[in-house]
From TrEMBL:
Species of origin: Cloacibacterium normanense
Gene3D superfamilies listed in its UniProt record: 23S rRNA-intervening sequence
Top-level taxon of origin: Bacteria
SUPFAM superfamilies, per the entry: IVS-encoded protein-like
Pfam families hit by this protein: 23S_rRNA_IVP
Family matches, as InterPro entries: 23S_rRNA-intervening_sequence, 23S_rRNA_IVS_sf
Protein name according to UniProt: Four helix bundle protein
Length: 119
């Protein structure tokens, strides 16, 4: 398989999300918001993986759009976990760097794909 920057970053991000989730449930006894973060955060990579074998460019665009929405939702859960004092400033800032980078990559992919489809 050839190198795919967004796929590679989404896998690294998913592993990080799993570790943050484990810390939140084991050490900070937070179960609700962290589960939402886990679901949306790991689905980004799953959608990108699905898009690799999309049936058409339109299907690819749809999957990448959904991955972008999941990334945005994950960012929302980070904010709530931070504001709810389950994540400290340093943890939040570090996660924000990663999710913002994924969002930027996905926005670029969606925009480029839309242009190639003439939308």
């Amino acid at each position: 398989m050839k190198n795919n920057l967004v796929a590679d970053k989404s896998i690294e991000f998913s592993i990080r999300i799993i570790k943050v989730y484990k810390t939140l449930i084991e050490n900070r006894k937070e179960f609700i918001l962290s589960k939402q973060m886990l679901r949306s955060g790991t689905s980004i990579g799953a959608l990108i993986r699905e898009a690799e074998h999309a049936q058409s460019k339109a299907d690819f665009l749809n999957k990448m759009n959904i991955a972008l929405k999941e990334a945005n939702e994950t960012d929302y859960w980070f904010l709530l976990l931070y504001k709810g004092e389950y994540l400290n400033q340093q943890e939040y800032d570090s996660l924000e760097i990663d999710i913002k980078e994924l969002i930027k990559l996905l926005v670029k992919i969606v925009k480029t794909t839309k242009e190639s489809l003439g939308r």
